[in-house]
């Protein structure tokens, strides 16, 4: 079964906006959020927003943060390929977590177009997030 459309969230207000339409959603942290905010922050954010659906914490190129995330029981991670990737993938699989080498396409709720595109993105009527200007 495919995962629901992904939304990049940056905090509790974004999480609430993601839930507002009442449609299934995959929550995705900002790129590298595990490095600057930490796995405990992500876990607390998901709890505070009562999110029970799929979620992915972006660990960028930090296998240590990915390992910390798995130890916290986070259900989904993004980790760019690195020497530890296969070992972490095996650990993730053993505990029923999802480990991806790249984030899925996602609408960033911090983008100026997000407010008007949110319902269309979640309903599948649009399948690509807006391209940021050069």
Indicate the topology.
Layout: E1 6-9, H1 12-19, E2 26-29, H2 33-36, H3 39-48, E3 55-58, H4 63-71, E4 76-78, H5 85-94, E5 98-100, E6 106-108, H6 114-123
Parallel strand pairs: 1-2, 1-6, 2-3, 3-4, 4-5
Helix pairs in contact: 4-5
Uncertain stretches of 5 or more adjacent residues:
none
Q: What is the CATH homology-level superfamily?
A: Aldolase class I
Widest β-sheet, arrangement of strands: 5-4-3-2-1-6
Q: What structural class do the secondary elements suggest?
A: alpha/beta
Mean pLDDT score: 92
The CATH class is identified as Alpha Beta
What is the strand content?
15-25%
Give the CATH topology. Answer: TIM Barrel
- Structurally, the number of domains stands at 1
If you had to describe this structure to a student in words, what would you say it looks like?
With 134 residues, this protein is an alpha/beta fold. The protein has one domain (6-123): Aldolase class I (TIM Barrel). 38% of the residues lie in helices and 16% in strands. The chain contains 6 helices and 6 strands. It has helices at residues 12-19, 33-36, 39-48, 63-71, 85-94, 114-123, and strands spanning 6-9, 26-29, 55-58, 76-78, 98-100, 106-108. Strands 5-4-3-2-1-6 form a 6-stranded parallel beta sheet. Strand 4 (76-78), helix 5 and strand 5 (98-100) form a beta-alpha-beta unit. Helix 4 packs parallel to helix 5. The chain starts with 5 loop residues before the first strand and ends in an 11-residue tail after the last helix. The mean pLDDT is 92.
């Amino acid at each position: 079964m495919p995962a629901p459309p992904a939304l990049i969230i940056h905090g509790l207000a974004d999480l609430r906006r993601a839930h507002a339409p009442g449609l299934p959603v995959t929550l995705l942290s900002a790129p590298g959020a595990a490095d600057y905010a930490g796995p405990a922050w992500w876990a607390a954010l998901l709890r505070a927003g009562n999110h029970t659906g799929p979620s992915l914490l972006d660990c960028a190129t930090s296998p240590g943060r990915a390992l910390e995330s798995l130890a916290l029981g986070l259900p989904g991670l993004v980790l760019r390929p690195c020497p530890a990737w296969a070992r972490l993938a095996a650990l993730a699989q053993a505990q029923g977590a999802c480990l991806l080498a790249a984030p899925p396409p996602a609408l960033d709720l911090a983008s100026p177009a997000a407010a008007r595109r949110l319902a269309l993105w979640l309903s599948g009527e649009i399948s690509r997030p807006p391209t940021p200007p050069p």
